[in-house]
Amino acid sequence: MNGAVQDGSDGAITSAVQPIISVAVPLRAVDPWHLASEEGNTMGLLLFPGDGNVNSPDVDWSYSGFSAFRTWLAQAEGFVLADMYGFGGERPWSSVSTTLEPLLDHPDDAGPDLTSAQCAAMLPRLEAIIDQRDDSDPVARRHVDDARRLIAVMRVCREKDVDLYFG
Q1: Where are the alpha helices (DSSP H) in the chain?
Q2: CA pair distance 167, 145, nearest whole angstrom
Q3: What is the pLDDT of residue 42?
Q4: In sequence order, which residues have a C-beta less than 8 Å from that of residue 84 and are 6 or more positions away?
Q5: Rg of the Cα atoms in the chain
Q6: Torsion of CA 49, 80, 73, 123, to 10 degrees
Q7: Percent of the residues in the chain that have a pLDDT greater than 70, as a whole number
Q8: Residue 75: CB partners within 8 Å, gap ≥ 6?
Q9: Which of 133, 124, 98, 118 has its CA nearest to residue 166?
Q10: What is the mean pLDDT of residues 49-68?
């Protein structure tokens, strides 16, 4: 009867379900980097191995969270992402040397997938970045956690020789 109770005297059905009280809390106040913002933006992206296994690890961000993550990675690589062509600046990608370029210069959710070889090439640098970062700051800690999740996804891509999908 799905939460309903039959009275018995006249056969009427009354509800035994208690009302639920909900409080609207902006997700940004709880998790500033993932899938929602105070402006109501619920769009985001998911990076996952193309192995067809729904149990494989993945990593997700809001678009603004992914932008912040890549800005943090670029800073670790010694340049400002906003100065780069495609990110509002005029600096060509050929002027920087980083194994992370396939990730940093990738459209948010379009373009080619990253190959397992690209993932394998980026792994050592991502690991080195998180090893040398101070994660005492909550924002930095969030980026380090996301980098660890991304590393787990890229390892699956390398080990199974599958692409990294942006979706």
Answers
A1: 27-30, 63-76, 101-104, 116-132, 138-160
A2: 20
A3: 53
A4: 74, 91, 93, 96, 104, 105
A5: 22
A6: 70
A7: 74
A8: 81
A9: 118
A10: 93
Residue-wise burial string across 95-119, b where 16 or more C-beta atoms lie within 10 A, e elsewhere: ebebebbbbbbbeeeeeebbbbebb
pLDDT in tens, 99-136: 999 999 998 877 789 999 999 999 999 999 998 877 68
Amino acid code (one letter) for 75: Q
**Residue 147: pLDDT over 90:** yes
**Torsion sign over Cα 140, 145, 150, 154:** positive
Query: In the sheet where 59-62 sits, what is the strand order?
Result: 59-62, 44-49, 164-166
Written as one letter, the residue type at 54 is: V
Tokens of 46: 């998911």
